[in-house]
Amino acid sequence: MINIKELILAVSFCKMAAELRVILLGCGLVGRAVLRGIHQSAAIWKARMNINVVVPMVCESDAALVVQGGESLDCGAVEAFKAGGKRLKTYDGAGSKIITSSDIGAEIMKYTTPATVLLDCSATDATTAVLVDFLKQGGGGVVMANKKPMTSAFDAMSTLVAAEYTARVKYESTVGAGTPFVASVQRAVKAGDSISKIEGCFSGTLGFLTAGLQSGRLLSELVVEAHAKGYTEPDPRDDLSGMDVARKALILARTVGWKFEMSDVEIEALFPSHLAGLSVDEFKVALKECDAEYATRFQEAKAKDCTLRYVASVTESKLKVGLQSVPLTSPLGSLAGSDNIMQMLSANHGDTPLVVQGAGAGDVITAAGVLADMIDLAKFPDPQATKRRRDEM
């Protein structure tokens, strides 16, 4: 027999906008781009998807902004404020209050409902415990651009992506910004495909450097240019160390289901260890001692109709990141500019790898990946909202 009350309830939910509450951790370049994206797209999500995005809390390391009573912070105003380089603890926008760092964790846990999503756009491993507690206490889901939780010790990471939470944990932007590298691997795993190898170039900065080396330029002058243009981190060694690529390789391996620790990754840095203790300016000058070596390596590759790319190689038995000779006509060899690329070999794809390529860096494209993951989590119903609606009938 048809339950008329339940039928009316279902129809009414189709007509009313579902509220998605969002808490943001981190207000750096990516966090600000997320705020800007929410401000620009909120009306579109409501009109096209029936999702009403509300942001009751925005956090950084020493303070957070909170708005009470089910209202939303003005994301556009907060983003504009942060664009001026100011700290949230000095924000004086109407309708919000400031809480100190010691109270942030407890305040976040007040929002542990299935209709609330926690976005981690910070760059610290200190958020891992917060993300896990949020899920354990009933939060709707977490979305990460921050790589640290997914590359923490395997046991800690496993708690975060445990079976009971896996559908509520999204981390596309940890590897390829908004380019669907993680999603492609996850779909293969869900299909029961047997993945044998993943390779890719996952650094726009190192892509710029290897493209320049391929054209005959010197490593030291390329690093100086990249640093001046803001392509590198404030300390270029953070890029040249290969650690960022290593983290991405580890995340992909763990997505497949392979149990590696960060210490298992073989990493080739593009500078010798004795340059690690220099100042940034001293380092840029001293790097000239490496110019001849890398020019020779590229010439040797060219003689074989190959070039060098900084490649992450991921298999069940080994993780390695470093310069690798690849044919010029291959997907990796033909990569240009700062694009990222991933190719995956598996049983289902046979001898022809799945190739995914796109922008792999930048705050806007990274934020786009975060926002897409966020909206995906809005598909989960809020049992409390359902109960309230049922009680009203």
Describe this structure in words.
- This protein has 393 residues and is of the alpha/beta class.
- 41% of the residues lie in helices and 20% in strands.
- The strands form 2 sheets. The chain has a 7-stranded mixed sheet, with helices on both faces.
- The chain starts with a helix and ends with a helix.
Q: Which secondary structure elements does this structure contain, and how are they paired or packed?
A:
Layout: H1 4-15, E1 18-25, H2 29-49, E2 51-60, E3 63-67, H3 75-83, E4 96-100, H4 101-108, E5 116-120, H5 128-136, E6 141-144, H6 154-160, E7 169-170, H7 173-176, H8 181-190, E8 195-201, H9 204-214, H10 219-228, H11 237-240, H12 243-256, E9 266-267, H13 280-286, H14 291-302, E10 306-314, E11 319-327, E12 339-346, E13 354-359, H15 363-377, H16 383-392
Parallel strand pairs: 1-2, 1-5, 5-6, 6-7, 9-11
Antiparallel strand pairs: 2-3, 3-4, 8-10, 8-12, 10-11, 12-13
Overall pLDDT confidence: 90
Beta-strand percentage range: 15-25%
Multimer state: single chain
Q: Please report the total strand number as a whole number.
A: 13
Structural class: alpha/beta
Q: Notable features of this structure?
A:
393 residues, seven-stranded mixed sheet, six-stranded mixed sheet, 16 helices, 41% helix, globular
